[in-house]
Specification:
The structure holds 2 protein chains of 2 kinds. Chain A is mainly α. In chain A, 74% of the residues lie in helices and 0% in strands. Classes of the chains: A mainly alpha, B mainly alpha. Chain A: InterPro entries: AA_ABC_transptr_permease_3TM (IPR010065), ArtM/GltK/GlnP/TcyL/YhdX-like (IPR043429), MetI-like (IPR000515), MetI-like_sf (IPR035906).
């Protein structure tokens, strides 16, 4: 069989308007980043809250957070995505439903579903990391803070959380990277993010290897840069003398 | 919501579940085997071998599984074509299996590596002092202990893999999720079948994780 290698394919016209294939990749990368950042914001806020809830003395609150984690961790991401995209909109109020399904650009409605799904999915993982971080701190710290008259919210805000979040930067980094990787499931409901664009390029140009090689390289570079960046953040926020250095 | 239609569809769904489990078992066995080889390469003193293993793990861990599945679905038939010279039908199942094995091997490799490194150095030296070769020391002394230690982690990773097998939807393989979705579409009950599939995934993963937790407690010294 003959395969026409053509690494210049990315600079060739797609035949749609005056776009070249590289434009597709750039717009795909844009969607991927937009998805990952928005989902990460949701995951950090909700995951942080749940993580705190799991360490609270109140049985109801910690039980609720545990149930959330178990539910979102044991259902495949794809099933969750289908539920958010196909099932949930049908139970919205009439007007919102019409808006979501008909008036909204299909790309935007898919974006909303994936962001919500990915954010809540990742929140369960963030929760576990935050909880571990809080529990890793010596018990004496919370007690000492109480002894000097801090209320429970103050203990968390001024003593536990600032330290816990620093401790869990490395595991949170890998969750952050997972958000980028997991955002590729968006291609399965028609959102034209990076993977979907690579697939489309492969189908349009028949240059499968080039298209997927570029996509792989982009994901790889993205991964490496985030890892470097988070390593830098970790160093920047480290409290001298407080945490053990070394050990990535 | 009408869940009564699910019962007559159960045999069909079981067919899908069988494919999911088949894929899972083969991918776990192949992934752990390949992952162990990679871990041994990674720990080798030869920079070429350890560099190769490191690169392999880094690349596979930085790309989405879905990308690997689609890559292999499109590329494996072509590669085989080049190698053998004529057209070999590969099929979605085989290409997905290879994709899962190679992808998961990167994750298993890191677990196995940590497991091997957790065995004290003195044991290796003692094995060498008894006159064992590298192969014997690994096979008879290090790996049996390491595997016992890392069993919970390996199982946990396999539960994640169980959930990830649902991604074969992307290449049209009829696994449990896909068969539930197609049944649901035919009967006009897509929501019910999707929620049922989610519930089944949940129960299997949840109980499996609970078992792993118990195992972890039993293994803890």
């Amino acid at each position: 069989m003959n395969y026409n290698w053509d690494w210049n394919i990315f600079f060739k016209s797609t035949g749609i308007g005056d776009e070249i294939y590289l434009d597709w990749f750039i717009s795909g990368l844009g969607w991927t980043i937009a998805l990952a950042l928005a989902a990460w914001a949701i995951a950090l806020v909700i995951g942080g809250l749940l993580g705190v809830m799991r360490t609270l003395p109140n049985k109801w609150l910690s039980g609720l957070a545990t149930a959330y984690v178990e539910l979102f961790r044991n259902v495949p991401l794809l099933v969750q995505l289908f539920i958010w995209y196909f099932v949930v909109p049908d139970y919205l109020p009439e007007q919102t439903q019409v808006w979501f399904k008909q008036e909204l650009n299909p790309m935007v409605s898919a974006y909303i579903s994936v962001t919500l799904c990915l954010g809540l999915f990742t929140a369960a993982r963030v929760c576990e990391q935050v909880r571990t971080g809080i529990q890793a701190l010596p018990k004496g710290q919370a007690n000492a803070a109480m002894a000097v008259g801090f209320t429970l919210p103050q203990v968390y805000r001024h003593v536990l959380l600032p330290q816990a979040f620093r401790v869990v930067i490395p595991p949170l980094t890998s969750e952050f990277l997972n958000v980028f990787k997991n955002s590729s499931v968006a291609s399965l409901i028609g959102l034209m993010e990076l993977l979907a664009q690579a697939k489309q390029t492969a189908e349009f140009s028949a240059n499968i290897f080039e298209a997927f090689t570029l996509a792989t390289l982009i994901y790889f570079t993205l991964n490496m840069s985030i890892m470097k960046f988070m390593g830098w953040v970790e160093k920047r926020v480290r409290i001298p003398g407080l945490m053990v250095e070394g050990g990535k | 919501m009408d869940f009564s239609q699910i019962v007559p569809a159960l045999p069909d769904l079981w067919e899908g579940m069988k494919l999911t489990l088949e894929l899972l078992v083969m991918a776990v066995v192949g992934g752990i085997a390949l992952g162990t080889v990679l871990a041994l390469l990674r720990l080798s003193s030869n920079p070429l071998l350890s560099g190769f293993a490191k690169g392999y793990v880094n690349i596979f861990r930085s790309v989405p599984l879905l990308l690997v599945i689609i890559w292999f679905y499109l590329a494996v038939p072509m590669l085989l074509n080049w190698i053998t010279g004529d057209f070999v039908p590969v099929g979605a199942f085989a290409s997905c299996l290879v994709a899962f094995m190679m992808f998961e091997a990167a994750y298993y490799c890191e677990i196995v590596r940590a497991g091997i490194q957790s065995i004290s150095r003195g044991q290796v030296n003692a094995a060498y002092a008894l006159g064992m070769t590298y192969g014997q020391a690994m096979r008879l002394v290090i790996l049996p202990q390491a595997f016992r230690k890392m069993m919970p982690l390996l199982l946990q990773q396999s539960i994640i893999l169980f959930q990830d097998t649902s991604l074969v939807y992307a290449v049209g393989l009829m696994d449990f999720l896909s068969s539930a979705r197609s049944r649901g579409d035919i009967l006009g009950l897509p929501h019910e079948f999707l929620l049922f599939a989610g519930a089944v995934y949940f129960m299997v993963s949840f109980f499996a994780s609970q078992m792993v937790k118990r195992l972890q407690k039993r293994l803890a010294v």
